[in-house]
Amino acid sequence: MSAKILDGKQIGLEIRQDVAAQVAEFVAGGGPKPCLTAVLVGEDPASQVYVRNKSRACEKAGIDGRTLRLPAETTQAELVEVIESLNQDPAVHGILVQLPLPKKGNGGSGFDERAILDTVDPMKDVDAFSPVNVGLLMQGRPRFLPCTPHGIVQLLHRTGLSVAGKHVVVVGRSDIVGKPMAMMLAQRTGSCGEDVANATVTIAHSRTANLAEVCQTADVLIAAVGVPEMITADMIANGAVVIDVGINRVGDKLVGDVAFDAAKDKASAITPVPGGVGPLTIAMLLHNTLMAAKLQQQ
Ligand code: NDP
User: Fold this and answer.
1) Where does the record place the Tetrahydrofolate dehydrogenase/cyclohydrolase catalytic domain (predicted)?
2) Which residue of 40, 196, 212, 278 has the fewest CB atoms within a 10 Å radius of its CB?
């Protein structure tokens, strides 16, 4: 068997076109041009690329994509002040602090990342990192949904892959991917209806005993680990759906957390890296920015 390859690039493009059409309608109806401001501290090359890509995607969707560049020497207090002024600026609808913040920032002592993220106004928190937005998601009444897990929900929905009643194993428990992913799929109703919710979810992590055996019981296996190709074909049940969130640079190649070539002969459907989950993350960021503009207009 060779798995169906889930084309995140194509689905991401469709979502971006939907968002662009909705932005045009919103602006034609008298709404302000939605504006996303990314705050980039320091010179990390990968972060520069991510921010540039987000800004380009914004422009293509009719969204004002701004980048505020700050030197690595910026202090915690200065960064908080910058975010507070963006919170107050009515022309800015979404705020994104590009992570990771420089390790030696804040005069050498490093930033308190949590405190920085907590400063972002929850109504402008398009990454859905603030405790208010995490709490609302937990309670099953989300405002913004975190972009990567929401992209995965969209991918499953748009390719007709139901998770209701199935066993989903999420490997990884980060606040950005693993935890919200597990929570979204376990809810009674998801952003795309009941088929992409109602799963029986197991969260695995670095302290999970017998990880391979746990993974083998998954109807849907979601890998968000950050270890190149650690999910091998023997860990995948015949016919499972495999979603690979990992983006790992190995030499000059990008590889996922799943050993793709062997896994595709076991799985019924699988996301490639690149071209799987990545493009959906940006698409959902645009969706959240439009939502933020609409919320602030109300
Ligand atoms: P984190 O490093 O924050 O979390 C990784 C998780 O994996 C942790 O919960 C950790 O467990 C777990 N883990 C690490 N090693 C093992 C192991 N050997 N066995 C089992 N579990 C393990 O990463 P993120 O969630 O932020 O990102 C994960 C991956 O996804 C990365 O490659 C990242 O680049 C990628 N990513 C891709 C995105 C996209 O748009 N496609 C967006 C965001 C991330 P523990 O908690 O015990 O330490």
Assistant:
1) 6-127
2) 212
